[in-house]
Amino acid sequence: MYNKSYQAVDYFNIDDLLGEDHKIIRSSIRDWVNRRVKPIIEKAALEHRFPQGLMQEMGELGALGPYIPEQYGGAGLDQMAYGLIMTELERGDSAIRSAASVQSSLVMYPIYTFGSEEQRKKFLPKLASGEMIGCFGLTEPGYGSDPGGMLSRIQDKGGHYLLNGSKMWITNSPIADIAVVWAKDESGKVRGLIVEKGMPGFTAPETKDKWSLRASITGELVFDDVRIPKENILPNISGLKGPLKCLNSARYGISWGAVGAALDCYHTALDYALERKQFGKPIAAFQLQQKKLAEMLTEITKGQLLAWRLGMLRNEDKASPAQISMAKRNNVNMALQVARESRQILGAMGITADFPIMRHMMNLESVITYEGTHDIHLLITGADITGIQAFE
Ligand code: TGC
Ligand code: FAD
User: DSSP of 238-290, one letter per residue?
Assistant: First the structure.
């Protein structure tokens, strides 16, 4: 493992725009990632294994549901703090950020925003502490980018609902205690429900042999006549906008998270370029390598500013879904390009597990696909600019 001390670059003094509390939170997460994630993540990824014990540690740090009010076990922080936490976690690995984003934005957020008071009290404190793990089921085998076509159905049976259908590509489903699932009712309206592990007819098989996000567990959700008590329906939302509001929060977090992966690649490449000698000089002395480093830093800085401004807008509740799409799309693509360029700077060493770059690069191939693909976010921007939907 390449082991230089890490000080994240802040080329445009964005730190001056943060509060002291933000810097304290960031430094506690950064320290934890350096101590608890960096030393074990390469092995976990090679072994295709999620380091599950880290969930409770993230809970102790306040990284699960950071913006959920303290009365429900959250840390009561703002959106900027959430973003900074995501950057530090993804500097460690996208799988760790994924686990925290799903728990925070896709499980705690809908229960807090659309749930009953009983649901909030029952689930949120355990999710915040990491004692309970949650997952989010929207995507189906036949409906990924177009979730409105979903086939999963609930039928009202008087005292309970009967759930049938399946979901796939679900982060953490095999280890989750609860799943926030989206299914249509008899009138065709999308509803959200909380499915609990152990309910008869509910299984969550693992999806094996991924080349990407290897330190994250992915699986299916299969529902075969699962009885869902009525108190497990999220009462305060119906329609596709329910899951999409959750995605706004998760996509926002990813726009910050991707910056973390990019920073880790950039720092690794810079350190390596300054040390590695060819033709009698450090390779950092060659213009071609300087071009790569200078362009990477430029793009990272632009991504940091975009995320920071989006955080300000989110704090004021003024960020539009299209603005979030632009930031998620730009920053993930930026991180993937930075990973590819950094890998080249390391030459053959770049393909080994001695360095984090190839792992980040492979992870980012999922990040550019999930939470809305690169194409879909472009189409969302295009529709916003022109007023014309080009999806169909
Ligand atoms: P469309 O007709 O445009 O919209 C349906 C209703 O939803 C509203 N809406 C939104 N509301 C809030 N936030 C948004 N971002 C919204 N986008 C749309 C819209 O106003 C409408 O409301 P109403 O009241 O009129 O009914 O929907 P469409 O069927 O044409 O589809 C377009 C859309 C937006 C669904 C599609 O562009 C899209 O986003 N597809 C991507 C699907 C996606 O992102 N799936 C992610 C699955 S979860 C995941 O990947 C987790 S990875 C976790 C990890 O490990 O980190
Ligand atoms: P498709 O929708 O089949 O798209 C295939 C290609 O066609 C893409 O390039 C896409 O951009 C393009 N395309 C689609 N429609 C259009 C169009 N209208 N115009 C132009 N091009 C188009 N989902 C969950 O619900 N919960 C999770 O926790 C979750 N975790 C995930 C974890 C991982 C590791 C991965 C890889 C995925 C996860 N997903 C999850 C699923 C993810 O959200 C979907 O993969 C994603 O939304 C894309 O759907 P799809 O894979 O079916 O691709």
Answer: -STHHHHHHHHHHHHHHHHHHHHHHHHHHHHHHHHHHH-EETTEEGGGSHHHH
Q: Which atom of ligand 2 is least distant from the CA of 379? A: 19
- Annotated catalytic residues are 371
Eight-state DSSP code of residue 387: S
CB under 6 Å to ligand 2: residues? 102, 135-139, 144-145, 169-171, 213, 218, 366, 369-371, 373, 375-376, 379, 391
- Out of 241, 318, 370, 375, give the residue to mutate to test ligand 1, the one with the largest number of ligand atoms within 8 Å of its CB: 241
Cα 375 to ligand 2 centre (Å): 10
Residue 146 CA to ligand 2 center (angstroms) comes to: 8
Nearest CA to ligand 1 atom 54: 98
CATH superfamily assigned to domain 241-386: Butyryl-CoA Dehydrogenase, subunit A, domain 3 (1.20.140.10)
**What whole-number distance in Å separates Cα of residue 82 and Cα of residue 65?**
8
CATH 2.40.110.10 intervals, the chain: 135-232
Q: Could you tell me the pLDDT band of residue 7, with boundaries at 50, 70 and 90?
A: low
Domain 14-133 class?
mainly alpha
d(CA 103, CA 160): 26
Fold of 135-232: Butyryl-CoA Dehydrogenase, subunit A; domain 2 (2.40.110)
Render the burial of 7-41: b for 16+ CB within 10 Å, e for the rest. ebeeeeeeeeebeeebeebbeebbebbbebbbebb
Report the mean per-residue pLDDT for the chain: 97
Q: What is the pLDDT of residues 131-179, one digit of tens each?
A: 999 999 999 999 999 999 999 999 999 999 999 999 999 999 999 999 9
